[in-house]
Amino acid sequence: MPDRHTLEETERATRERVQHLPLDFAASHALLSIYRAANAVRGRLTNAVLRPHDLTWTGFLVLWTLWIWDSMETRDVAESVGISKGTLTGVAKTLMARGLIDRVPSTEDRRLVNLQLSEAGLALMDSIYPEFNKTESRIVGNVDAEQLEIMTAALRSLVESSESD
Amino acid sequence: MPDRHTLEETERATRERVQHLPLDFAASHALLSIYRAANAVRGRLTNAVLRPHDLTWTGFLVLWTLWIWDSMETRDVAESVGISKGTLTGVAKTLMARGLIDRVPSTEDRRLVNLQLSEAGLALMDSIYPEFNKTESRIVGNVDAEQLEIMTAALRSLVESSESD
DNA sequence: TAGGTATCGTACGGATCCAAACGATTACCT
DNA sequence: AGGTAATCGTTTGGATCCGTACGATACCTA
């Protein structure tokens, strides 16, 4: 029994374990790789960039979303970040307590609340994002540019087919 | 301000927002796609396959790991699944309470504990995994086989370069 | 214009997760 | 041999996250 297992070893062991079953190994390996990659990337970005600024991964995504889109309704922020509405309430509360975002109740529909970056939040993003992106760039540095493009396109089509139904 | 944003729209908006900065857009889009894909895939598999069996995503990964490798020390299970040792303690406790796994203290090193599937756990995996894989296959169904292979390889090299340092 | 339906943001319970601290056990080193 | 260092699994505390339920508000239709 080996101590540690690389992705490749795991895939080989999987084949042996279930070789008597009619399974789609390519699909299984692809999705396992996606999940591991997402975890690894998130962990590294969190530790290297976010933690020194006392920012959560989710909190950063919220800030980043508002940075890109200027102002958004809470439901759209949640959907864009990939968390539930209820989760966003707590995250937004934390970010607001730190003065990084503002809540702006809608005048047209009083059920709605818009979120946007405060000046402090904007300044924070301006200073953090270049650093964040530099780490991103380093992470994908070993992957050929063309392969990276294919990967991104494949992931995108996968997201669409997975979210649609 | 649009209501919903596709990955493509988000990438376009990102460019406009930060076009004055010297950034690596390909890297940013790639990692955003990975994260969204992982979330979407995990959500769909959880809802479609795991929830009916009252299984957590993490719990299933633990079972799956033990299914593939027969028996493992807890530290290796945690590392393989991508969670901390402390988290695994709780998850393993839950799975053991349901009689799906067994704890086997090591005789050679009394600090170590090995985990393995019980008979009930083995039967559960035998019945669930074909269904799980069928959904996996459906998710990647729209992606060309060759592109899928490139994507998987790119993700794998990305995991390695991201976990190494 | 009144009542039913839909959707908003929020509150709450439970599960998951991590980082740090801890006691127990083993390995190393002089 | 004996003491220090390293590593094991666990515990603890706090943050995150989801699903559900809820009141409030807006829309719709007869």
Number of domains of chain A: 2
Q: Could you give the order of strands across the largest sheet of chain A?
A: 1-3-2
Radius of gyration of chain A: 20 Å
Largest interface, with counts of residues having CB < 8 Å to the other chain, equals: A-B, 74 and 74 residues
Average per-residue pLDDT of chain A, rounded, comes to 86
CATH fold-level name of the largest domain in chain A: Arc Repressor Mutant, subunit A
Please mark out the parts of chain A with pLDDT under 50 across 5 or more consecutive residues, or reply none. none
Element order of chain A: H for helix, E for strand = HHHEHHEEHH
CATH class of the largest domain in chain A: Mainly Alpha
The number of helices of chain A is 7
Structural class of chain A: mainly alpha
Say which CATH homologous superfamily of the largest domain in chain A is assigned. Winged helix-like DNA-binding domain superfamily/Winged helix DNA-binding domain
- CATH architecture heading of the largest domain in chain A: Orthogonal Bundle
Give the % helix of chain A: 55-70%
| DSSP, total strands of chain A | 3
> Strand percentage of chain A, roughly?
5-15%
How far do the termini of chain A sit from each other?
40 Å
